[in-house]
């Protein structure tokens, strides 16, 4: 009996280790606070995104102007994110997160109290209202860089998987609570649709204050250290995917011409890596902008005449499915690598996205929506772990911030195009285009990086084998 109990304990411990529970349990308090911030932030994003397009339509704004609003919001956030993430380490990561939280609370109040298009646009830009339900603004780049700073590299896939999961769970819960809150206010209290939506934005402001409290609770350990600023690329696990990198020579020592050439090659290869990431992630983000959550909920509401409560339930289910799938991604990535996990899980979701607007009956459309959700988010944690390992630590925050700026810039072009197509009666075409572009992105990632990552994994395996031998 004791032997069976011991085996059960070992099996449970192995299962918990596989899905990263033990890693999160042992992680620093700051890691847990950063994940909590992501949860409450995505809770607010999910709730506001569920009603954003419908709310603006209800106050008399045309579809193409709604698309323009989303585009200008994302463009404005590009500018703010660029400066905040570029100087986040100098300003202090804690200060940047706290400032963003305060602006988030203020924007919720503006949306709750004003219906003017340009006032709402200013609040959305400076206070971070998400048209897509996903991350915009400076938060994610700063948090991901901080998590990489606080976490040993071998545990990064687990931490980023849970970071992604709690965000998806927060967005799902926000959609559910928002949808049924509006239904309850309309059905039981007799409120009109617009005042009910404004209640959601008051809640958005309250969540911003909660996030501010969590940001202020972070310790000094989240800030960049002098050691990290000067860290060299001598750790094979943290080296970029650049081939054979040699350490720098001391500043006062004149390096031999050959070594100087190697260092120049490293810098050139780093730029090559970053440019390819810009192009591929930009393509994926443009596709995401075409099929943002605001447009998706608005599409289902208009095509199938669904009330907000049912919409909230539908997208709660899809978000929970997507969140649960991220845990599987972490386990898969440990076996086949981050790039293959990203591509092989993202391709099915891209195909389902391209088909989701085709069915004329709700059950078939929901089946495609749920099938898409099954693998929609499985690429998020492996992608973040790939970036954390591929980029040098002293440049990680700035490069991740620049990548997010490129992604947001590309994404900002999508909503306007979708709005124009929607007004011309071709709403579903936007989802078809988005799915095709995401397939191109997946194949581009596979061709560009899968071979290099596989070679790096083989090299690491040989080194571990030599050390154990």
UniProtKB/TrEMBL annotation:
GO cellular component: fungal-type vacuole membrane
UniProt region (Disordered), positions on chain: 227-262
Origin: domain of life: Eukaryota
Major facilitator superfamily (MFS) profile domain segment(s): 16-453
InterPro entries: MFS, MFS_dom, MFS_trans_sf
Subcellular location as annotated: Membrane
UniProt keywords, alphabetically: Membrane, Transmembrane, Transmembrane helix
Keyword field contains Transmembrane helix: yes
GO molecular function, one term: transmembrane transporter activity
Official protein name in the record: Major facilitator superfamily domain-containing protein
